[in-house]
Each structure stands twice: as structure tokens, then as C-alpha cells.
UniProtKB/TrEMBL annotation:
GO biological process: protein O-linked glycosylation
Pathway named in the protein's UniProt entry: Protein modification; protein glycosylation
Keywords in alphabetical order: Disulfide bond, Glycosyltransferase, Golgi apparatus, Lectin, Manganese, Membrane, Metal-binding, Signal, Signal-anchor, Transferase, Transmembrane, Transmembrane helix
Protein name: Polypeptide N-acetylgalactosaminyltransferase
Catalytic function, reaction form: L-seryl-[protein] + UDP-N-acetyl-alpha-D-galactosamine = a 3-O-[N-acetyl-alpha-D-galactosaminyl]-L-seryl-[protein] + UDP + H(+); L-threonyl-[protein] + UDP-N-acetyl-alpha-D-galactosamine = a 3-O-[N-acetyl-alpha-D-galactosaminyl]-L-threonyl-[protein] + UDP + H(+)
Main location: Golgi
Residues of the Ricin B lectin domain: 433-545
Amino acid sequence: MRRNLKILCLVAAVWMLFLFYYMQPDSTQSKEENIALRLIKQHSDVEETESSPASPEDTYGTGSTGRTYFDEGGYVAGGLRDSDPYVRNRFNQAASDNLPSNRAIPDTRNAMCRLKKYDDDLPQTSVIITFHNEARSTLLRTVVSVLNRSPEHLIKEIILVDDYSDNPEDGAALRAIRKVRVIRNTKREGLMRSRVRGADAATAPVLTFLDSHVECNVHWLEPLLQRIKEDPTRVVCPVIDVISMDTFQYIGASADLRGGFDWNLVFKWEYLSHAERSARLSDPTQVIRTPMIAGGLFSMDRLYFNKLGKYDMKMDVWGGENLEISFRVWQCGGSLEIVPCSRVGHVFRKRHPYTFPGGSGAVFARNTRRAAEVWMDDYKELYYRSQPLAKQVEFGDVSERVALREKLHCKPFRWYLEHVYPELQVPAFGGSYHAITQGNRCLDTMGHLVDGTLGMYPCHNTGGNQEWRFENGLIRHHSLCIALSPDDRVTAVLAGCDPADDAQLWRRKGRLIRHAKLEACLDSDRPALYLEQCDEEKISQQFTF
């Protein structure tokens, strides 16, 4: 009896110790500890250009409170929000605010990536994140994902460049987190000048630029640094996964994509060719050479970044900078790569949440004109042909950038087209693309790529998705052509142009577009164009070139 009593007391004591340990305030930081938010007594320096908010570390850090962890809840709750969660950031801020900064996300890499080994002596990186009025929860989650999913010794510092946000404390409060440095602009500078300011302050040999609403996935950093260590002239990007703007679900993206553009100079994702995809089946970890980068997320050797001329400091706000740096890297001796074993999620929005002086269209056209005038030689006329209104936008003095190109002995744009992007269809300078119309509606790609359907959309007279050319039986939209879907042989879809493919051959008879092998014509009386029995009286079959 006495022995049973001793055993019972021992079990009770163990149980009490168990409860005591796991009921402590910091007990939630056991197995899933949010290491990034563990505070240190010595805070990183803040480099403010105006007076900082009074003691943000007392509010969110240790200070007089004696906290061990950054006060995530207090920081997020202190941010600005609206009754409509989409108003301030053009994504569902409420969904973001309800998620922890270290939430679990799926490992979206190919299984073969987990077998890859990387050098032990990879270079350190400075991570540069610029932001303007970013939601606090997404900004914090970006920082936390960098710290928690990167080898600690490879992150030299995280430099937050606050581009004159309405609330200075959005960035200043984060100085309590280890390795974080904060720089605040005294006026709105835009992405390019803000990134250069961060790069000038960086001390690591590699610069990594990230947007302020991303989540780095596991082992995202090592593959990028390995490629740069092997060749410092490489500019390397992760595969960009999708974070839903509505639910914040993390969704893996295809690794068979690369960046490109049409002659409107708008960035687009395009699938690798069938031959390239087939070659990758045996080793899906192979890097992908890309003609263009999206621009928001990439790593680059710091000395090489400076040598190549940083960014065009006369570009404003946002837009066109990815075009300019892509041309510059390729034409001046470097290369652009997408590294499939590196994954970073990004919140893609349908609209920008911030304002552009003079309007977003004018700012984008100005920046794009600057890139075209410096880097595209005579081929810039194809851009102006596609976007005639752009010629009315002033683009400023580009003499410094032209001198940089001459100093670096950069190759002509023709070389870029022949060796980097031979898939881009170059129209003869005598020919041109036009709209295909039905009244006030135009044939439109609807933003789709290969296998995507087509539709009719109100004409906007700026080219883009509505420019076509009838050539040797093909109806071309640059490198894409109208074809019959292989699934039903009725629906019209986009396909890579191939004159030997019967599904892509058409004939014009009056205002009808007749398939060359079938007695049927394109018809637009459904949301997606399709093939129907030819009828010259039917308005939906009458197209004007």
C-alpha cells in the first residue's frame, strides 16, 4: 500500500512539473519557436532621417516591459486598417492579420531539390526590403520568413527602407528584431531610388532584393548564393509561388516558366518550349535561363550591381525597372537565371495600392521609354508602333545611362534578340500589327498564354493584347498564333506559332475567318471564340482587319 502511494505521488509530481513547464508564458516557443522574434538586448541601429517614434522598443520589444519576444500582436494591432479589408493594400488585410508571422507553408520544391548539397562557405547576403504603407502583418511575415528559413550565418542584415510611409513606426518598431536595420526616406522616392539607398548601406558581398509582401520557403537562400559564388555575373531569382490576395493560401507555382515580353514591353510569364520541358524531366533542379526577370525578388553580387550601374535613378515610383536591368545584365556580359530549388511566395494583386504622380500609365510609359531609348537601338520603333501613345510622354535626359552603356562596352539589342530571346517574333519594319475588330470590340488574348482562350473586348487602341497580324495563313500575336484546341477541335486557343501545324492555318474570305482545312469559321457569340458553320450574314463572324 505504501509503495503504491509513493508511485502515485511520483506520478503526480511529474505531472505537475509537466504542467508547470508547458504553462509558462514563453512555452509556445518550444518545438515551433518563432526564433526570429526572440529579442536581444542590443538592438540593431536605426538610421532615421527624421526623429524616430518615442522608444518603439518599449512598446514592442524588451525595454521596461522585460519581454523576451517581440510583441507581434501589439505591432500588428497598431497598424492602420479600414472597414473594407481590401482598401489600403488591395489584398485582404484581415486574412493576413489573422495569420501568425511564422505560419507553416508547404514545401513546394521538387523532391530532387532535397537531395542537393551546397558549399559550406557560401557568401553572406544583405536582404533589402523597400516598402510604402505596407500592411504590418505582411511586412513582419516577410522579415520573419527570411530569418526563420535561412541559415543564420548567411544573413548579414535585413535592411528595411521605408519609402516615407504615413506611419514612421511601421518600420522603426522592427528595429527591435535582430539583424534588422531601418532607413527612412524624407520624401517619397519610389522603388528604384529606395533600393539603391538600401544597397549603398549594405555590407554583405551579395545583395538580395525582396518585395515587402513575400514569404521565403525552406532552403530558399542557399541555391541562389551557390550560383553567385560560382559566377558573380549571374543575377538569380527564385521560383515565385503565389500567395492568394483573398485567403493568403500559399500555392506552388510551375517551375517550367520564364520571364518574357511582347513589343508592348509588358512583362509576361511564358512556358518553356516543349523541348526544354522534356530536357528538364531527368533533372528538374536545372536552372532556367530567362530573358527577363519579374524584378521584385532576386540576388546579385554587390560589386557587380555597382559596376553595372545600380538602377536608373531617374525612373519614378515603380515599373520598367525590371526591363531595364534585364537588358543591361544580358547586354553587358551577365546572365539571368531562375533557380527552381529556391521558392519564395508573393502576394499578387490586381491593382497597386499606392498613387503615382501623373497616373500609373504615364509613369510606366516614362520609365519604359527610358529603357527603350538606352538599350533597344532601332528596335525601339517596334515598341512605339505597339504603344503609339508612349511617344507623347516625356522621358527626360538619358545621357548618363547611354554613357554607362558605352563605358561597359555592352552588346547591341540585336545580339540580345539573337542569343537570349530568339523566340521573340520580330516583325519586319515594313509590316505591322493591327486590331481585328467587330464594331467597337477587338479580338483580345484576355491576358492568356499557350492553351488560353480568346475573346472580344472593348477596343482600347493601345495595342497590347489586341494586336494581330495575318501572315502566311497564321494569325499572329507576336510569338503566339490562333489555333484549334486539340481537346475539341472547336475552341480557338493560343499556341506557339508553327506553320506546319494544320490547326493554326486560316484563310480570309471577305470578313470571314475560315479554317484552312475545315468548312467552318471563327465565331464570337460565346465568351470564347469557337468554330461554327460559316454564315456571311452572321454579325459575330464578321471581322475587320
